[in-house]
């Protein structure tokens, strides 16, 4: 989910107007045979591969914009899912706080290194032609 956070920072630094910063967090679950479990925050590849749940959550401070869930169990209680969502919410807000400490608002001017485009309308039939700049 670092790609989500990095994309937010890059867009804001380049002056691309976005509605709100977005952060992502990878959650995991390890379930014991006795039914006891641990919800993991900011999992790595080995935890993803060997855990019982892989749960990615992305969003702004206002809410979730995307999520993805894989489980290796036959089922999972709604209480565990709610706990994982709550834990992800707190982690996402902490990450968003770090993002806004690094860059609180989108830069006022677009970066000169951003790719651009020029659009023009061709005569009949109306065809929109776009040229990369």
TrEMBL record:
<dbReference type="GO" id="GO:0006402">
    <property type="term" value="P:mRNA catabolic process"/>
</dbReference>
<dbReference type="Pfam" id="PF03725">
    <property type="entry name" value="RNase_PH_C"/>
</dbReference>
<dbReference type="GO" id="GO:0000175">
    <property type="term" value="F:3'-5'-RNA exonuclease activity"/>
</dbReference>
<dbReference type="InterPro" id="IPR027408">
    <property type="entry name" value="PNPase/RNase_PH_dom_sf"/>
</dbReference>
<dbReference type="GO" id="GO:0004654">
    <property type="term" value="F:polyribonucleotide nucleotidyltransferase activity"/>
</dbReference>
<feature type="domain" description="Exoribonuclease phosphorolytic">
    <location>
        <begin position="21"/>
        <end position="89"/>
    </location>
</feature>
<dbReference type="InterPro" id="IPR012162">
    <property type="entry name" value="PNPase"/>
</dbReference>
<dbReference type="InterPro" id="IPR036345">
    <property type="entry name" value="ExoRNase_PH_dom2_sf"/>
</dbReference>
<dbReference type="InterPro" id="IPR015847">
    <property type="entry name" value="ExoRNase_PH_dom2"/>
</dbReference>
<protein>
    <recommendedName>
        <fullName>Exoribonuclease phosphorolytic domain-containing protein</fullName>
    </recommendedName>
</protein>
<dbReference type="GO" id="GO:0005829">
    <property type="term" value="C:cytosol"/>
</dbReference>
<dbReference type="GO" id="GO:0003723">
    <property type="term" value="F:RNA binding"/>
</dbReference>
């Amino acid at each position: 989910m670092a790609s989500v956070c990095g994309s937010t920072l890059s867009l804001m630094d380049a002056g691309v107007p976005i509605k709100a910063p977005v952060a992502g967090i990878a959650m995991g679950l390890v379930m014991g045979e006795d039914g006891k479990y641990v919800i993991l925050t900011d999992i790595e590849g080995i935890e993803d591969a060997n855990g019982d749940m892989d749960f990615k959550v992305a969003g702004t401070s206002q809410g979730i914009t995307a999520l993805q869930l894989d489980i290796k169990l036959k089922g999972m209680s709604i209480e565990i899912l709610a706990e994982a969502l709550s834990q992800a919410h707190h982690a996402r807000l902490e990450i968003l706080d770090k993002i806004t400490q690094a860059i609180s608002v989108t830069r006022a001017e677009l970066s000169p290194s951003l790719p651009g485009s020029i659009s023009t309308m061709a005569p009949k039939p109306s065809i929109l032609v776009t040229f990369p700049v």
